[in-house]
Amino acid sequence: MAVCVTLNTDGTLATTGQAVSECSGYVLVSGTEYGVYQVVQDALSAPTPEVAAGWFAGPFVLVLTLHLVARNVGAVASFFDHQ
After folding, report:
1. Angle CA(69)–CA(74)–CA(77) in degrees, nearest 5?
2. Residue 37 and residue 10: Cα distance in Å, rounded?
3. 29: which DSSP letter?
4. Residue 9 gets which letter from DSSP?
5. 13-15 and 3-7: which strand pairing?
6. How far apart are CA 55 and CA 46, in angstroms?
7. 26 with 14: CB under 8 angstroms?
8. Secondary structure E strands in 2-79
9. Cα dihedral sign for 10, 11, 13, 18?
10. N or C terminus of the chain: which is more exposed, having fewer CB within 10 Å?
11. β-strands 26-28, 13-15: how paired?
12. Are 25 and 12 in contact (CB under 8 A)?
């Protein structure tokens, strides 16, 4: 559970009792909460140019390869169909 704290002049932390949404100091979260926030942030971040290029090139190469395979299979099948 997140807690709102402030930093005292002597370097210690003190809870303020404020709601986290209205916190004027710092918000402390547990390790589990931080892990969830990190996963969400990673999922919503923009991909690198290399990853984005892979997302385009992968399906493009797959479709092109399947087209060439189907064309060759069709050529072989039509060869046997004429006899």
Report:
1. 125
2. 30
3. -
4. T
5. antiparallel
6. 13
7. no
8. 3-7, 13-15, 26-28
9. positive
10. C
11. unpaired
12. no
Q: Copy the structure tokens of residue 50.
A: 């290399």
- The pTM of this model reads 0.49
Structure tokens at 80: 């046997």
**Helices within 1-48 (DSSP H only):** 31-44
pLDDT in tens, 16-67: 999 999 999 999 999 999 999 999 999 999 999 999 999 999 999 999 999 9
3-state secondary structure of 56: helix
Domain ranges of the chain: 1-45, 47-83
Give pLDDT, residue 59: 94
Alpha-carbon distance values, 58 to 14, 37, 64, 72 (Å): 53, 30, 10, 21
